[in-house]
Design goal:
Layout: E1 3-5, E2 8-10, E3 55-59, H1 64-75, E4 82-86, H2 115-122, E5 134-137, E6 142-145, H3 148-157, H4 175-190, H5 192-197, H6 202-225, H7 236-252, H8 267-277, H9 288-298
Parallel strand pairs: 3-4
Antiparallel strand pairs: 1-2, 3-5, 5-6
Helix pairs in contact: 1-3, 1-7, 4-6, 4-7, 6-8, 7-8
Protein name: Glutathione S-transferase family protein
Site (Lowers pKa of active site Cys): 252, 295
Domain GST C-terminal: 171-298
């Protein structure tokens, strides 16, 4: 891993873990919003009107946060309106790159070799982490946003007047409930598995892994009464949960030591995951090879040999 300091790339060790051994995930730096009329969104500047062909999305197939954005691009039929580049699965001393490999889609706009070059192009003095996803504005030649939670909300509604498909995954009447579920799922599970996996002290790991399984137990309970997290309506909250559940047994159970139970040991959650997996928006976005190789080969501090396990033998397809 590495980071940019005043526009210069520094391959450092992991600086995200505090003295108490706990992972601290920094806030995303680019928080502008694409809106239907180009007015400012909840954060950042105005001037990013929804126009087909104007924006480009950079993602890694391995990354659960980037994965949400590709699911929303499919859900809303934005594949032709917003082009996609896909990084190499390996995140090593240059961070995310576009080096050739199966499933890699290079940067057609600048021919960038690395994602950090995109950050410097947008902000030559940038200091901070270089993360995916990145949503790029071709017109202003800058990053609109590098926060997946915001990007999925833009995709959900900003392009509705210019050709996006049906569907509202953040309906007005459910927003309070969705936000509350997201908060709990983010802290206990989406980020919880990372807190467990990247902990450098036993106490930090113990705390995180306990939260992970308390959150899964709570979800199992909640979903036994309803089809989706908010009852009969499939929402953003389900999609944000899905990308973590998909990675749970193949990666988080082994690599991040979240091994009290497996996803398949939760009958309700397992069935729910497979129902979401069967949604037509999902198949084009999943690359399990990128997912497994990324985690096991990139995080050498927790898997020094870089060996990628063969298992688990499991199928998300419903019989
Ligand atoms: N809050 C961001 C987090 C994105 C994120 O942390 N992405 C990871 C990949 S899974 C990354 O690019 N990490 C690189 C780094 O921290 O150096 C979002 O949801 O968009």
């Amino acid at each position: 891993m590495g980071m940019l300091i005043d526009g210069k790339w520094e391959s450092d060790d992991d600086k995200l873990v505090d003295d108490d051994g706990r992972l601290r995930r920094p806030d995303s730096a680019f928080r502008n919003w694409i809106t239907a009329d180009g007015s400012a969104g909840p954060t950042g500047e105005a001037g990013f009107r929804a126009e087909p062909g104007r924006y480009h999305l950079y993602i890694a197939r391995a990354c659960p946060w980037a994965h949400r954005t590709t699911i929303f691009r499919e859900l809303k039929g934005l594949q032709d309106a917003i082009d996609l580049s896909v990084t190499h699965w390996l995140m090593a001393e240059d961070g995310w790159t576009f080096r050739p490999g199966p499933g890699v889609v290079p940067d057609p706009l600048h021919g960038a070799d690395t994602v950090w070059q995109l950050y410097v192009k947008s902000d030559p003095r940038y200091t901070g982490r270089v993360t995916v996803p990145v949503l790029w504005d071709k017109q202003r030649d800058c990053i609109v946003s590098n926060e997946s939670a915001d990007i999925i909300r833009m995709f959900n509604s900003a392009f509705d007047g210019v050709g996006a498909g049906e569907g509202d995954y953040y309906p007005m009447e459910l927003r309070g409930e969705i936000d509350a579920i997201n908060d709990r799922v983010y802290d206990g599970l989406n980020n919880g598995v990372y807190k467990a996996g990247f902990a450098k002290k036993q106490s930090a790991y113990d705390e995180a892994v306990t939260d992970v399984f308390e959150t899964l137990d709570w979800l199992e309970q909640r979903l036994s009464a309803h089809e989706w997290l908010c009852g009969d309506t499939l929402t953003e909250a389900d999609w944000r949960l899905f990308t973590t559940l998909l990675r749970f047994d193949p990666v988080y159970h082994g690599h991040f030591k979240c091994n009290l139970r497996r996803l398949v040991d939760y009958p309700v959650l397992w069935d729910y995951t497979r129902r979401l997996f069967a949604h037509p928006a999902v198949a084009p976005t999943v690359d399990m090879d990128h997912i497994k190789r990324h985690y096991y080969q990139s995080h050498r501090h927790i898997n020094p040999t870089g060996i990628v396990p063969k298992g688990p033998a499991m199928s998300f397809a419903r019989d």
